[in-house]
From TrEMBL:
Organism ancestry: Bacteria, Pseudomonadati, Bacteroidota, Sphingobacteriia, Sphingobacteriales
Protein name: 3'-phosphate/5'-hydroxy nucleic acid ligase
UniProt-listed Pfam families: RtcB (PF01139)
GO biological process, one term: RNA processing
Organism: Sphingobacterium mizutaii
Keywords of this entry: GTP-binding, Ligase, Manganese, Metal-binding, Nucleotide-binding, RNA repair
Residue positions of the active site: 393
Amino acid sequence: MGNLRTKDLSKIGYQNDQLRSLVINIASKNFKHHSKQELLDLLVEIKNNPEAFLENEETKKIAEKIIGKVKEQNFKVYELREEPIPCKIYGSKGIESSAKKQMEIACMLPVSVQGALMPDAHMGFGLPIGGVLATEQAIIPYAVGMDIGCRMALSILDAAAGFTKKYEYQIVQAIKNHTHFGMEGGLEIRQDHEILDHSLFNELPFLKPLRGKAARQLGTSGNGNHFVEFGEIELMENNGLGLEPKVYTALLTHSGSRGLGAAIAKQYTQIAMESCKLPRHAQQLAWLDMESEAGQEYWLAMNLAGDYAKACHDRIHKNLLSALGLKAMAMVENHHNFAWKDVLSDGKETIIHRKGATPAHQGELGIIPGSMTTAAYLVSGRGIENALNSASHGSGRAMSRQKANDNMTNSAMKKLISSANVKLIGGSVEENPLAYKDIEQVMLSQRELVDIQGKFIPKIVRMHKE
Protein backbone atom coordinates (compact mmCIF):
# COMPACT_ATOMS: atom_id res chain seq x y z
CA MET A 1 0.00 0.00 0.00
CA GLY A 2 2.84 2.38 0.64
CA ASN A 3 2.99 4.92 3.44
CA LEU A 4 -0.36 6.74 3.12
CA ARG A 5 -0.37 9.89 5.26
CA THR A 6 -2.95 12.49 6.22
CA LYS A 7 -0.91 15.01 4.20
CA ASP A 8 -1.48 12.91 1.07
CA LEU A 9 -5.21 12.86 1.74
CA SER A 10 -5.35 16.62 2.30
CA LYS A 11 -3.80 17.21 -1.11
CA ILE A 12 -6.64 15.35 -2.84
CA GLY A 13 -9.37 17.11 -0.89
CA TYR A 14 -9.87 14.93 2.19
CA GLN A 15 -9.88 17.75 4.75
CA ASN A 16 -11.97 16.23 7.55
CA ASP A 17 -9.88 14.61 10.33
CA GLN A 18 -12.41 11.86 11.03
CA LEU A 19 -12.67 11.02 7.34
CA ARG A 20 -8.89 10.86 6.93
CA SER A 21 -8.57 8.58 9.95
CA LEU A 22 -11.29 6.32 8.57
CA VAL A 23 -9.60 6.15 5.15
CA ILE A 24 -6.19 5.25 6.59
CA ASN A 25 -7.76 2.55 8.77
CA ILE A 26 -9.75 0.98 5.90
CA ALA A 27 -6.83 1.23 3.49
CA SER A 28 -4.49 -0.61 5.87
CA LYS A 29 -6.96 -3.50 6.10
CA ASN A 30 -8.48 -3.77 2.63
CA PHE A 31 -6.02 -2.25 0.17
CA LYS A 32 -2.69 -3.73 1.20
CA HIS A 33 -1.85 -4.78 -2.33
CA HIS A 34 -2.59 -1.41 -3.97
CA SER A 35 0.25 0.94 -4.72
CA LYS A 36 0.06 4.35 -3.08
CA GLN A 37 -0.79 6.04 -6.39
CA GLU A 38 -3.47 3.48 -7.23
CA LEU A 39 -5.07 4.06 -3.86
CA LEU A 40 -4.94 7.84 -4.20
CA ASP A 41 -6.53 7.61 -7.65
CA LEU A 42 -9.30 5.43 -6.22
CA LEU A 43 -9.89 7.86 -3.35
CA VAL A 44 -10.23 10.74 -5.80
CA GLU A 45 -12.89 8.75 -7.69
CA ILE A 46 -14.74 8.01 -4.44
CA LYS A 47 -14.63 11.68 -3.42
CA ASN A 48 -15.94 12.86 -6.80
CA ASN A 49 -18.72 10.27 -7.05
CA PRO A 50 -19.34 8.63 -3.65
CA GLU A 51 -22.76 7.25 -4.64
CA ALA A 52 -21.07 4.89 -7.10
CA PHE A 53 -19.14 3.20 -4.27
CA LEU A 54 -21.96 2.59 -1.79
CA GLU A 55 -22.50 -1.03 -2.89
CA ASN A 56 -18.86 -2.05 -2.43
CA GLU A 57 -18.17 -3.33 1.09
CA GLU A 58 -14.57 -2.11 1.00
CA THR A 59 -15.45 1.46 0.04
CA LYS A 60 -18.96 1.78 1.50
CA LYS A 61 -17.99 3.44 4.78
CA ILE A 62 -15.76 6.01 3.07
CA ALA A 63 -18.52 6.88 0.59
CA GLU A 64 -21.12 7.15 3.35
CA LYS A 65 -18.89 9.47 5.35
CA ILE A 66 -18.30 11.69 2.32
CA ILE A 67 -22.02 11.87 1.53
CA GLY A 68 -22.74 12.70 5.14
CA LYS A 69 -20.14 15.47 5.04
CA VAL A 70 -21.67 16.90 1.89
CA LYS A 71 -25.08 16.95 3.53
CA GLU A 72 -23.63 18.81 6.50
CA GLN A 73 -22.05 21.55 4.37
CA ASN A 74 -23.33 25.01 5.07
CA PHE A 75 -25.03 27.09 2.44
CA LYS A 76 -27.22 30.15 2.51
CA VAL A 77 -30.31 30.94 0.50
CA TYR A 78 -30.72 34.50 -0.76
CA GLU A 79 -33.59 36.36 -2.35
CA LEU A 80 -33.16 39.10 -4.93
CA ARG A 81 -34.06 42.72 -4.32
CA GLU A 82 -37.50 43.81 -5.41
CA GLU A 83 -35.97 46.63 -7.46
CA PRO A 84 -32.52 46.83 -9.10
CA ILE A 85 -29.87 49.23 -7.85
CA PRO A 86 -28.82 52.12 -10.17
CA CYS A 87 -27.19 51.11 -13.45
CA LYS A 88 -26.13 53.53 -16.18
CA ILE A 89 -26.30 52.12 -19.72
CA TYR A 90 -24.10 53.60 -22.45
CA GLY A 91 -25.06 53.15 -26.10
CA SER A 92 -28.36 51.55 -25.15
CA LYS A 93 -29.73 51.43 -28.71
CA GLY A 94 -26.93 49.13 -29.81
CA ILE A 95 -27.28 46.65 -26.94
CA GLU A 96 -29.48 43.55 -27.17
CA SER A 97 -32.32 43.22 -24.66
CA SER A 98 -30.97 39.92 -23.28
CA ALA A 99 -27.76 41.64 -22.14
CA LYS A 100 -29.76 44.40 -20.47
CA LYS A 101 -31.89 41.78 -18.70
CA GLN A 102 -28.79 40.00 -17.42
CA MET A 103 -27.48 43.29 -16.08
CA GLU A 104 -30.79 44.02 -14.40
CA ILE A 105 -30.71 40.66 -12.61
CA ALA A 106 -27.14 41.35 -11.44
CA CYS A 107 -28.30 44.69 -10.07
CA MET A 108 -30.93 42.91 -7.97
CA LEU A 109 -28.39 40.89 -5.98
CA PRO A 110 -28.45 41.84 -2.29
CA VAL A 111 -24.68 42.44 -2.40
CA SER A 112 -24.80 44.77 -5.42
CA VAL A 113 -24.12 48.47 -4.89
CA GLN A 114 -23.97 49.99 -8.39
CA GLY A 115 -23.85 48.83 -11.99
CA ALA A 116 -22.92 50.11 -15.43
CA LEU A 117 -23.23 48.64 -18.92
CA MET A 118 -20.76 49.54 -21.65
CA PRO A 119 -21.72 50.14 -25.32
CA ASP A 120 -20.03 46.94 -26.54
CA ALA A 121 -22.25 44.82 -24.28
CA HIS A 122 -23.74 41.50 -25.32
CA MET A 123 -25.06 38.44 -23.53
CA GLY A 124 -22.66 36.30 -21.51
CA PHE A 125 -22.75 33.84 -18.60
CA GLY A 126 -23.97 35.47 -15.40
CA LEU A 127 -22.90 39.06 -15.97
CA PRO A 128 -23.11 40.22 -19.60
CA ILE A 129 -19.94 40.99 -21.51
CA GLY A 130 -19.48 44.73 -21.04
CA GLY A 131 -21.03 44.61 -17.58
CA VAL A 132 -19.50 46.43 -14.61
CA LEU A 133 -20.75 45.64 -11.12
CA ALA A 134 -19.77 47.01 -7.72
CA THR A 135 -20.49 44.71 -4.79
CA GLU A 136 -19.98 44.95 -1.05
CA GLN A 137 -17.80 42.30 0.63
CA ALA A 138 -18.53 39.81 -2.14
CA ILE A 139 -16.79 38.56 -5.27
CA ILE A 140 -18.65 36.81 -8.10
CA PRO A 141 -16.49 34.42 -10.17
CA TYR A 142 -18.83 34.57 -13.18
CA ALA A 143 -18.79 38.38 -13.03
CA VAL A 144 -15.04 38.19 -13.59
CA GLY A 145 -15.37 35.59 -16.32
CA MET A 146 -13.79 32.33 -17.39
CA ASP A 147 -10.73 33.94 -18.97
CA ILE A 148 -9.51 35.70 -15.84
CA GLY A 149 -7.23 38.63 -16.56
CA CYS A 150 -7.88 38.65 -20.29
CA ARG A 151 -6.01 41.76 -21.34
CA MET A 152 -4.62 44.02 -24.02
CA ALA A 153 -0.96 44.93 -24.49
CA LEU A 154 0.40 47.59 -26.85
CA SER A 155 4.09 48.14 -27.62
CA ILE A 156 5.01 51.27 -29.57
CA LEU A 157 8.18 50.44 -31.45
CA ASP A 158 11.35 52.17 -32.55
CA ALA A 159 10.43 51.66 -36.20
CA ALA A 160 9.07 54.26 -38.55
CA ALA A 161 5.77 54.11 -40.38
CA GLY A 162 5.97 51.77 -43.36
CA PHE A 163 7.95 49.11 -41.49
CA THR A 164 5.15 46.53 -41.74
CA LYS A 165 4.94 46.92 -45.51
CA LYS A 166 8.68 46.84 -46.09
CA TYR A 167 9.31 43.86 -43.81
CA GLU A 168 6.04 41.96 -44.17
CA TYR A 169 7.73 38.64 -44.92
CA GLN A 170 10.01 38.86 -41.87
CA ILE A 171 7.10 39.85 -39.60
CA VAL A 172 4.94 36.98 -40.86
CA GLN A 173 7.76 34.48 -40.26
CA ALA A 174 8.39 35.86 -36.78
CA ILE A 175 4.70 35.58 -35.91
CA LYS A 176 4.52 32.01 -37.22
CA ASN A 177 7.67 30.99 -35.34
CA HIS A 178 7.11 32.78 -32.05
CA THR A 179 3.37 32.69 -31.37
CA HIS A 180 0.98 29.83 -30.74
CA PHE A 181 -2.82 29.82 -30.72
CA GLY A 182 -5.40 27.31 -29.52
CA MET A 183 -6.34 25.27 -26.49
CA GLU A 184 -3.53 22.73 -26.68
CA GLY A 185 0.19 22.73 -27.34
CA GLY A 186 2.71 25.47 -26.85
CA LEU A 187 5.81 27.10 -28.25
CA GLU A 188 8.69 24.92 -29.43
CA ILE A 189 11.08 26.66 -27.06
CA ARG A 190 10.05 26.34 -23.42
CA GLN A 191 9.38 29.77 -21.94
CA ASP A 192 10.53 31.00 -18.56
CA HIS A 193 9.13 33.68 -16.29
CA GLU A 194 9.19 34.40 -12.57
CA ILE A 195 5.41 33.86 -12.41
CA LEU A 196 6.04 30.10 -12.53
CA ASP A 197 7.87 30.36 -9.20
CA HIS A 198 4.93 32.02 -7.47
CA SER A 199 4.45 30.57 -3.99
CA LEU A 200 0.70 30.16 -4.49
CA PHE A 201 1.29 27.18 -6.78
CA ASN A 202 2.48 25.33 -3.67
CA GLU A 203 0.30 26.99 -1.05
CA LEU A 204 -3.04 26.10 -2.68
CA PRO A 205 -3.27 22.33 -3.31
CA PHE A 206 -5.76 22.93 -6.11
CA LEU A 207 -3.19 24.98 -8.06
CA LYS A 208 -0.20 22.67 -7.75
CA PRO A 209 -1.13 20.30 -10.62
CA LEU A 210 -1.91 23.30 -12.85
CA ARG A 211 1.65 24.63 -12.82
CA GLY A 212 2.84 22.22 -15.52
CA LYS A 213 0.15 23.30 -17.96
CA ALA A 214 0.81 26.94 -17.10
CA ALA A 215 4.46 26.42 -17.97
CA ARG A 216 3.58 24.76 -21.30
CA GLN A 217 1.14 27.52 -22.27
CA LEU A 218 3.30 30.45 -21.19
CA GLY A 219 3.69 32.94 -24.03
CA THR A 220 0.78 31.53 -26.05
CA SER A 221 -2.65 32.84 -27.01
CA GLY A 222 -6.11 31.31 -26.85
CA ASN A 223 -8.72 30.96 -29.54
CA GLY A 224 -11.79 33.03 -30.46
CA ASN A 225 -11.04 36.74 -30.62
CA HIS A 226 -7.50 36.58 -29.26
CA PHE A 227 -4.91 38.03 -31.62
CA VAL A 228 -1.40 39.25 -32.35
CA GLU A 229 -1.26 42.29 -34.63
CA PHE A 230 1.43 44.47 -36.14
CA GLY A 231 0.22 47.80 -37.42
CA GLU A 232 0.61 51.55 -37.25
CA ILE A 233 -0.54 53.88 -34.51
CA GLU A 234 -0.98 57.61 -34.84
CA LEU A 235 -0.41 59.31 -31.49
CA MET A 236 -2.22 62.56 -30.72
CA GLU A 237 -0.85 65.77 -29.25
CA ASN A 238 -0.18 65.71 -25.51
CA ASN A 239 -0.55 61.93 -25.29
CA GLY A 240 -0.02 60.31 -21.91
CA LEU A 241 3.08 58.47 -23.14
CA GLY A 242 5.05 61.65 -23.64
CA LEU A 243 5.90 60.66 -27.21
CA GLU A 244 6.02 62.92 -30.24
CA PRO A 245 2.65 63.04 -32.04
CA LYS A 246 3.22 61.07 -35.24
CA VAL A 247 2.74 57.61 -36.78
CA TYR A 248 4.65 54.70 -35.23
CA THR A 249 4.87 50.97 -35.89
CA ALA A 250 3.22 49.06 -33.05
CA LEU A 251 2.50 45.56 -31.77
CA LEU A 252 -0.92 44.89 -30.24
CA THR A 253 -1.94 41.64 -28.51
CA HIS A 254 -5.11 40.30 -26.91
CA SER A 255 -5.17 37.13 -24.80
CA GLY A 256 -5.70 35.95 -21.25
CA SER A 257 -4.74 33.45 -18.58
CA ARG A 258 -5.19 30.33 -20.69
CA GLY A 259 -6.00 27.02 -18.97
CA LEU A 260 -4.89 28.29 -15.57
CA GLY A 261 -7.54 31.01 -15.41
CA ALA A 262 -10.27 28.74 -16.77
CA ALA A 263 -9.56 26.09 -14.12
CA ILE A 264 -9.62 28.69 -11.33
CA ALA A 265 -12.89 30.13 -12.63
CA LYS A 266 -14.52 26.70 -12.86
CA GLN A 267 -13.35 25.62 -9.40
CA TYR A 268 -14.55 28.67 -7.52
CA THR A 269 -17.75 29.15 -9.50
CA GLN A 270 -18.75 25.67 -8.38
CA ILE A 271 -17.89 26.48 -4.76
CA ALA A 272 -19.87 29.72 -4.98
CA MET A 273 -22.91 28.01 -6.45
CA GLU A 274 -22.83 25.33 -3.76
CA SER A 275 -22.62 27.80 -0.88
CA CYS A 276 -24.70 30.69 -2.22
CA LYS A 277 -28.17 29.63 -3.32
CA LEU A 278 -30.04 32.10 -5.51
CA PRO A 279 -33.19 31.91 -7.63
CA ARG A 280 -32.53 29.70 -10.64
CA HIS A 281 -32.33 32.54 -13.18
CA ALA A 282 -29.67 34.27 -11.05
CA GLN A 283 -27.67 31.25 -9.87
CA GLN A 284 -24.70 31.94 -12.15
CA LEU A 285 -24.18 35.14 -10.15
CA ALA A 286 -23.45 33.23 -6.94
CA TRP A 287 -20.79 34.98 -4.90
CA LEU A 288 -18.10 34.24 -2.35
CA ASP A 289 -17.92 36.26 0.84
CA MET A 290 -14.62 38.12 0.86
CA GLU A 291 -14.11 37.19 4.50
CA SER A 292 -14.57 33.47 3.84
CA GLU A 293 -11.72 31.06 3.19
CA ALA A 294 -13.00 30.37 -0.33
CA GLY A 295 -13.36 34.09 -1.04
CA GLN A 296 -9.80 34.79 0.05
CA GLU A 297 -8.50 31.83 -1.95
CA TYR A 298 -10.30 32.97 -5.09
CA TRP A 299 -8.99 36.52 -4.68
CA LEU A 300 -5.41 35.24 -4.48
CA ALA A 301 -5.90 32.77 -7.35
CA MET A 302 -7.59 35.43 -9.51
CA ASN A 303 -4.64 37.77 -9.03
CA LEU A 304 -2.24 34.95 -9.86
CA ALA A 305 -4.16 34.33 -13.11
CA GLY A 306 -4.01 38.04 -13.90
CA ASP A 307 -0.26 38.11 -13.34
CA TYR A 308 0.09 34.99 -15.48
CA ALA A 309 -1.86 36.65 -18.31
CA LYS A 310 0.54 39.59 -18.13
CA ALA A 311 3.47 37.18 -18.22
CA CYS A 312 2.09 35.63 -21.42
CA HIS A 313 1.94 39.05 -23.08
CA ASP A 314 5.44 39.85 -21.80
CA ARG A 315 6.81 36.73 -23.48
CA ILE A 316 4.89 37.30 -26.73
CA HIS A 317 6.17 40.86 -27.06
CA LYS A 318 9.71 40.03 -26.00
CA ASN A 319 9.96 37.05 -28.38
CA LEU A 320 8.62 38.93 -31.39
CA LEU A 321 10.63 42.10 -30.86
CA SER A 322 13.80 40.09 -30.29
CA ALA A 323 13.23 38.12 -33.49
CA LEU A 324 12.78 41.33 -35.47
CA GLY A 325 15.51 43.34 -33.78
CA LEU A 326 13.07 45.94 -32.46
CA LYS A 327 12.66 47.72 -29.14
CA ALA A 328 9.60 49.09 -27.39
CA MET A 329 9.61 52.83 -26.75
CA ALA A 330 6.48 52.59 -24.61
CA MET A 331 4.00 49.94 -23.50
CA VAL A 332 0.38 50.13 -22.36
CA GLU A 333 -1.54 47.22 -20.83
CA ASN A 334 -4.90 46.64 -19.20
CA HIS A 335 -7.05 43.78 -17.92
CA HIS A 336 -10.70 43.60 -18.93
CA ASN A 337 -11.86 40.43 -17.12
CA PHE A 338 -11.02 41.09 -13.51
CA ALA A 339 -12.11 42.46 -10.14
CA TRP A 340 -10.55 45.30 -8.19
CA LYS A 341 -10.98 46.74 -4.71
CA ASP A 342 -12.11 50.35 -5.09
CA VAL A 343 -13.72 53.09 -3.04
CA LEU A 344 -16.74 54.93 -4.43
CA SER A 345 -17.17 58.68 -4.10
CA ASP A 346 -19.38 58.21 -1.03
CA GLY A 347 -16.55 56.38 0.73
CA LYS A 348 -18.04 52.90 0.37
CA GLU A 349 -15.46 50.17 -0.11
CA THR A 350 -16.46 47.85 -2.94
CA ILE A 351 -15.30 45.12 -5.28
CA ILE A 352 -15.57 46.34 -8.89
CA HIS A 353 -16.12 43.51 -11.37
CA ARG A 354 -15.34 44.35 -14.99
CA LYS A 355 -16.34 41.55 -17.33
CA GLY A 356 -15.28 42.73 -20.74
CA ALA A 357 -14.75 46.32 -19.61
CA THR A 358 -11.66 48.53 -19.45
CA PRO A 359 -10.61 50.42 -16.29
CA ALA A 360 -10.90 54.14 -17.03
CA HIS A 361 -10.04 56.14 -13.92
CA GLN A 362 -8.98 59.74 -14.49
CA GLY A 363 -5.84 59.67 -16.66
CA GLU A 364 -5.65 55.86 -16.77
CA LEU A 365 -4.45 54.56 -20.14
CA GLY A 366 -6.12 51.62 -21.88
CA ILE A 367 -6.64 50.00 -25.27
CA ILE A 368 -10.02 49.42 -26.93
CA PRO A 369 -9.78 47.25 -30.09
CA GLY A 370 -12.22 46.87 -32.98
CA SER A 371 -12.03 43.88 -35.32
CA MET A 372 -9.28 42.30 -37.43
CA THR A 373 -9.67 45.07 -40.04
CA THR A 374 -10.76 48.09 -38.00
CA ALA A 375 -9.09 50.54 -35.67
CA ALA A 376 -8.09 50.05 -32.06
CA TYR A 377 -7.90 53.09 -29.81
CA LEU A 378 -5.41 54.15 -27.17
CA VAL A 379 -7.52 55.99 -24.61
CA SER A 380 -7.19 57.91 -21.38
CA GLY A 381 -9.93 57.50 -18.79
CA ARG A 382 -12.03 60.42 -17.62
CA GLY A 383 -12.96 58.89 -14.27
CA ILE A 384 -16.74 58.94 -14.66
CA GLU A 385 -18.44 57.72 -11.48
CA ASN A 386 -21.69 56.67 -13.21
CA ALA A 387 -19.62 54.28 -15.34
CA LEU A 388 -17.72 53.05 -12.28
CA ASN A 389 -14.57 54.45 -13.91
CA SER A 390 -14.91 52.09 -16.85
CA ALA A 391 -15.15 51.94 -20.64
CA SER A 392 -15.79 49.24 -23.23
CA HIS A 393 -13.22 46.49 -23.84
CA GLY A 394 -13.73 46.49 -27.59
CA SER A 395 -16.39 46.97 -30.22
CA GLY A 396 -18.43 43.98 -28.98
CA ARG A 397 -20.08 41.23 -30.96
CA ALA A 398 -22.93 42.09 -33.31
CA MET A 399 -23.51 38.39 -34.07
CA SER A 400 -23.09 35.22 -32.08
CA ARG A 401 -20.30 32.96 -33.28
CA GLN A 402 -22.87 30.57 -34.73
CA LYS A 403 -24.66 33.34 -36.60
CA ALA A 404 -21.36 34.70 -37.90
CA ASN A 405 -20.46 31.23 -39.11
CA ASP A 406 -23.83 30.87 -40.85
CA ASN A 407 -23.66 34.28 -42.53
CA MET A 408 -20.09 34.39 -43.84
CA THR A 409 -18.00 32.24 -46.16
CA ASN A 410 -14.22 31.98 -46.21
CA SER A 411 -14.05 33.50 -49.68
CA ALA A 412 -16.22 36.47 -48.70
CA MET A 413 -14.11 37.05 -45.60
CA LYS A 414 -10.93 36.99 -47.65
CA LYS A 415 -12.35 39.74 -49.86
CA LEU A 416 -13.22 41.85 -46.82
CA ILE A 417 -9.74 41.46 -45.40
CA SER A 418 -8.06 42.13 -48.72
CA SER A 419 -10.07 45.32 -49.23
CA ALA A 420 -8.82 46.53 -45.84
CA ASN A 421 -5.19 45.84 -46.85
CA VAL A 422 -4.71 43.43 -43.96
CA LYS A 423 -2.55 40.30 -44.07
CA LEU A 424 -4.34 37.58 -42.05
CA ILE A 425 -2.66 34.47 -40.67
CA GLY A 426 -5.22 31.92 -39.49
CA GLY A 427 -8.53 33.35 -38.33
CA SER A 428 -12.04 32.01 -38.80
CA VAL A 429 -15.35 33.25 -40.19
CA GLU A 430 -16.68 33.38 -36.63
CA GLU A 431 -14.37 36.35 -36.07
CA ASN A 432 -15.00 38.08 -39.39
CA PRO A 433 -15.21 41.89 -39.27
CA LEU A 434 -18.98 41.98 -39.78
CA ALA A 435 -19.48 39.86 -36.64
CA TYR A 436 -18.56 42.93 -34.60
CA LYS A 437 -20.23 46.24 -33.89
CA ASP A 438 -18.96 49.42 -35.51
CA ILE A 439 -16.04 50.52 -33.34
CA GLU A 440 -16.55 54.15 -34.37
CA GLN A 441 -20.12 54.10 -33.08
CA VAL A 442 -19.02 52.40 -29.87
CA MET A 443 -16.39 55.09 -29.31
CA LEU A 444 -18.98 57.78 -29.99
CA SER A 445 -21.30 56.22 -27.40
CA GLN A 446 -18.61 56.46 -24.72
CA ARG A 447 -17.08 59.81 -25.59
CA GLU A 448 -17.79 61.05 -22.06
CA LEU A 449 -15.89 58.10 -20.57
CA VAL A 450 -12.52 58.33 -22.36
CA ASP A 451 -10.33 60.66 -24.39
CA ILE A 452 -8.72 59.23 -27.52
CA GLN A 453 -4.92 59.51 -27.51
CA GLY A 454 -4.02 57.28 -30.42
CA LYS A 455 -5.50 55.30 -33.31
CA PHE A 456 -4.02 51.92 -34.27
CA ILE A 457 -4.64 50.40 -37.71
CA PRO A 458 -3.87 46.66 -38.08
CA LYS A 459 -1.69 45.54 -40.99
CA ILE A 460 -0.64 41.96 -40.16
CA VAL A 461 -2.94 39.86 -37.97
CA ARG A 462 -2.72 36.37 -36.55
CA MET A 463 -5.69 34.62 -34.92
CA HIS A 464 -6.60 31.03 -34.15
CA LYS A 465 -7.90 29.05 -37.11
CA GLU A 466 -10.91 27.04 -35.91
